[in-house]
Design goal:
heterotrimer; A alpha/beta (about 325); B mainly alpha (about 290); C alpha/beta (about 325); A: about 325 residues; Rossmann fold; eight-stranded mixed sheet; four-stranded antiparallel sheet; 10 helices; B: about 290 residues; MetI-like fold; about 75% helix; nucleotide-binding (chain A)
Chain lengths: ~325, ~290, ~325
């Protein structure tokens, strides 16, 4: 990562306030995302992995400016995303796009494919309708759908085709960053690999950066250059995909990878069984939030002191008192 | 779950296939009793509905001793009941249509905005809805009649006031679900303004609901109009609205039953047909029901 | 399918289910034959629309009455024919002999009752007892699915539990009457990776303990590889391959199975480009002539498009079958 990153998140935090109880006005603060620091380089794929409730979806909503952070900032091409206004904001909107998990709910059922795919162009750029048509056909062509599909409605397509349409719409404005929120987990197995390959081809051709959110580790391994493992709103480990998957350092990463089922029968694996479940973010444990489930706990320091995410010379970061 | 699997990739039924279970009978009744009279009253009426004919007072309907001259009988001033019903249909249609339009426009706009922006405006609109649903429409009608005098306008306002809250509540509920749909988030990411999201993405997804609800409200509007006329705070005399006709026959129900009966029958048939068509529309337009 | 019928606990022969919709009728379950023994786990693998959930529902006789009809075949549990039982007799079989774990733990529990009440309800139907014994057996059922502090948890409402915990409760209800067969319809799809691993281990332990047979419906070959003894692969309403898991992974006989296995991204080994299956599965109402997979198959020839292949043995042992013309020729 010698060149300047296209996106930098610094101390990014989002806290929600929930009022509890009918009679009392007690409120809880949920730290959905707490102090994230990460960069995404041009043409790179960074994956956020973790279990439900770890804050990965909140993170994407902050990057997409669907929500404002409580603390910290997101800088895109050097500019603070949450301070953008007017023309600068419109520019950001056309440079950062998203593909969502569920191809059934992410496309408005009442809008023609052409209009759906064209939306980022129509709202952000001043193009003639002929120019828009040309770009839409180009984008549909790139995802393997002919221009004949442009006038159809979404219900005429299967899940895999819909996800292709969603990708076409995300790519039509030639964005520099696309947030992929579980792009294949809603699809059938035989369609999944088609989409994974398509995304890789898109990246190779257009040099776009991806922020991938996934809970499926195998998909992540195929798409991501670097991985950030999240637990209860914080990154616990971050590094090159192969390093993290082949030599996981944080006990949680170890457990997560060991829990993934191998794809061939009879394959030996040393599964690390985590006790209990992810604690409620309403009352996260003290110190290292992973300590109640940790199989390598070293002592009082885990309970009392929050570990710092510290990088080694190769850029691999681990937030654990063991290191 | 089984249903989901069947329907996952089922081709959409063509319009012809869907029209096969179209409610022909209710539609025919509606045309004959309501629509045709409303638009062609002058051609199909037999007599002038306003001119009394004291020599033909209280004629019974045909088959009950009457003649073809007055097929549904006459009232105590000798006016032809049939012609009065036919001429009244226009007013009933106009009041219910315009009243519902007022309700749809006001209710949908407030419901859309309330559900989308949430916050204090949402709370404010929902309290208005609560108040509006708690306040009897009759009370408002009385107040309006006292303040500005009963007129076509006052009746339309009362009908619109009585109905807007249903639209607002229903539309808001659907918007609350839709605003969290991924396609709304995607559109925001694409850079759409709130205005564009509301009117290009959310509104088209609630139109079915509005159409169905509006159809089902026609019955309520007609009944409300009739009740107002019956109480004497509707469109003033001598306009022969159906409620007024029923009211006119009230004192004669034991002896000259036909004066109230036929206008009452017209109200019942119209409301029943409209409701049946509304049910059919709801089943046809609701995508969840359509799939099964 | 030469599994000797004597030792089969659940034996399904030539089961056919017809679904009638306004767009036409079709067979989501088309001539299915398979069997499962005590203590065995049979994986039923297929993509959405392949008819795998329909198969499960027809075994329970819980098909939607107005739309789906069983059009032939037999389902024998311990030698007893289920398809001819009266609805009342069938109700006794459900829950007591065969029970089911559904995909979504959010909706398969009633949020208005405590989990204890819901387990008790299942117990009461099939094995009535006094208040105290019922409570003990409820707590015992929770203990068997490894819910911590079951004495307290019986009084919890589903809303107070996590997804993994709720799915354990669903499991507790399913096993509470010690059924001989459990049908699990993608029970772990909505669970997180670490919780899924816990749940699969729990199922295995329960099976070792009680000797129940499990029909595990899934689209995930990873789960099949780790949990199942045998597997049947479904495509467009037909069983295209069936056999022991190790054999099918080592030497898949049907091109669909082969493609499906190699399309799954792996956590280990080389990261070469994923193989894909071109195209889409046929819509259920499409009229299929020949092999349903032929349009997507890299080996298909003229006969595959015109004639449906028969089901034949894929090797000498006879426990591995497939329906593919390539196997017929071999």
């Amino acid at each position: 990562m010698t060149e300047t990153p296209i996106l930098e998140a610094r101390n990014l935090s989002k806290h929600f306030t929930i009022s509890a109880g009918v009679m009392t006005k007690r409120t809880h603060v949920v730290r959905a995302v707490d102090g994230l620091n990460f960069d995404i380089a041009k043409g790179e794929t960074l994956a956020l992995v973790g279990e439900s409730g770890c804050g990965k979806t909140t993170t994407t909503r902050l990057l997409l400016r669907l929500q404002d952070p409580t603390h910290g900032s997101v800088r895109f091409a050097g500019e603070d995303v949450h301070a953008l206004k007017g023309a600068a904001l419109r520019k950001y909107r056309s440079r950062v796009q998203a593909v969502f998990q569920d191809p059934w709910s992410s496309i408005n059922p009442r809008v023609r494919i052409r209009d759906f795919v064209a939306e980022p162009l129509v709202v952000n750029e001043n193009l003639t309708s002929g120019e828009v048509d040309r770009r839409v056909h180009e984008a549909l062509d790139a995802v393997g759908l002919g221009p004949a599909h442009a006038s159809k409605f979404p219900h005429e397509f299967s899940g895999g085709q819909r996800q292709r349409i969603a990708i076409a719409s995300a790519m039509v404005s030639r964005p520099e960053l696309v947030v992929l929120d579980e792009p294949v987990s809603g699809l059938d197995v035989s369609i999944r690999s088609q989409i994974i390959n398509l995304l890789k081809d898109m990246q190779a051709e257009y040099g776009v950066s991806f922020l991938l959110v996934a809970h499926d580790l195998a998909t992540t391994r195929y798409l991501a250059d670097r991985v950030a493992v999240m637990y209860l709103g914080s990154i616990v480990e971050m590094g090159k995909t192969d390093d993290v998957f082949d030599r996981p350092s944080h006990p949680y990463t170890e457990a997560l990878i060991s829990a993934a089922l191998p794809s061939t029968p009879g394959m030996k694996r040393n599964e690390i069984v985590l006790g209990g479940e992810v604690p409620s973010p309403l009352s996260p444990p003290s110190g290292c939030t992973f300590h109640p489930r940790c199989h390598r706990i070293i002592g009082d320091v885990c309970v009392s002191k929050t570990p710092v995410l510290s990088p080694d010379p190769a850029g691999h970061c681990v937030g654990c008192h063991l290191y | 779950m089984a249903e989901v699997q069947i329907s996952a990739q089922r081709p959409r039924r063509s319009l012809w296939q869907r029209s096969r279970d179209f409610p022909i009978l209710p539609l025919a009744v509606l045309l004959i009793v309501f629509i045709i009279p409303a638009f062609f009253a002058h051609w199909i009426a037999l007599h002038d509905p306003y001119v009394p004919n004291l020599r033909a007072r209280l004629q019974p309907p045909i088959f009950f001793g009457g003649t073809w001259e007055y097929p549904l009988g006459t009232d105590r001033l000798g006016r032809d009941i049939y012609s009065r019903i036919v001429h009244g249909a226009w007013y009933v249609l106009a009041v219910s249509f315009i009243g519902i339009l007022v309700g749809v426009v006001v209710g949908t706009t407030l419901g859309l905005i309330a559900g989308y922006v949430r916050g204090w405006f949402d709370g404010f609109v929902m309290r208005l809805v609560d108040i509006s649903l708690a306040l009897p429409a009759m009370l408002l009608a009385l107040a309006l009649a006292a303040a500005m005098g009963a007129s076509f306008l006052s009746v339309v306002i009362v009908v619109g006031f009585a109905l807007w809250a249903y639209f607002a509540r229903q539309v808001r509920a659907e918007v609350l679900l839709l605003r969290n749909a991924d396609f709304v988030a995607r559109s925001r990411v694409a850079g759409s303004s709130h205005f564009r999201i509301l009117f290009r993405h959310i509104l088209p997804n609630v139109t079915n609901t509005i159409v169905v609800l509006a159809t089902l409200q026609v019955g309520i509007a007609i009944m409300l109009d009739a009740s107002l006329s019956f109480l004497g705070i509707g469109i003033p005399r001598p306009t022969p609205t159906w409620g007024l006709l029923v009211s006119d026959g009230r004192d004669f129900i034991a002896t000259d039953w036909w004066i109230a009966f036929f206008p009452g029958l017209a109200i019942m048939l119209t409301v029943l047909s409209v409701n049946m068509i509304g049910d059919w529309l709801r089943d046809t337009l609701d995508p969840r029901l359509r799939q099964v | 399918m030469n599994t000797s019928q004597t030792d089969a606990l659940l034996d399904v022969r030539n089961l056919k289910v017809e679904v009638t919709t306004k767009a036409g009728s079709f067979f989501p379950v088309n001539d299915h034959s398979f069997s499962v023994k005590s203590g065995e786990t049979l994986g039923i693998v297929g993509e959405s629309g392949s008819g795998k959930s329909m198969t499960a529902m027809s075994l329970m006789r819980l098909l939607p009455k107005h739309a789906a009809k069983i059009r032939g075949g037999s389902v024998k549990l311990d030698g007893r024919e289920l398809l001819t039982l009266s609805e009342k007799e069938m109700r006794k079989v459900r829950g007591a002999d065969i029970s089911m774990i559904l995909q979504d733990p959010q909706t398969s529990l009633n949020p208005a009752f405590t989990v204890g009440d819901q387990i008790k309800e299942a117990l009461k139907l099939h094995a009535p007892g006094g208040r105290k014994t019922l409570r003990e057996r409820t707590i015992d059922a929770l203990r068997r699915v490894k819910v911590a502090a079951p004495e307290h948890r019986v009084n919890s409402y589903p809303g107070e539990m996590s997804g993994g915990m709720r799915q354990r409760v669903v499991g507790a209800i399913a096993i509470s009457c010690r059924p001989k067969v459990i049908i699990a319809d993608e029970p772990t799809t909505s669970l997180d990776v670490t919780v899924q691993a816990q749940y699969l281990r729990l199922l295995k332990e329960l099976q070792d303990e009680t000797g129940m047979a499990i029909l595990f419906i899934t689209h995930d070959f990873g789960i099949v590889a780790n949990l199942c003894h045998r597997v049947i692969v479904m495509y467009a309403g037909r069983i295209v391959e069936s056999g022991p898991v190790a054999k099918i992974f080592a030497k898949p006989a049907h091109p669909y199975t082969e493609a499906l296995i190699s399309a799954v991204p792996s956590l280990h080994g080389q990261k070469e480009r994923l193989t894909t299956i071109p195209g889409q599965p046929p819509a259920p109402t499409d009229i299929v002539v020949g092999c349903p997979f032929a349009p997507r198959c890299q080996y298909a020839d003229a006969r595959c498009h015109s004639e449906a292949p028969p089901t034949v043995a894929a090797d000498q042992s006879g426990d591995h079958t497939t329906s593919c013309w390539r196997a017929v020729e071999a």
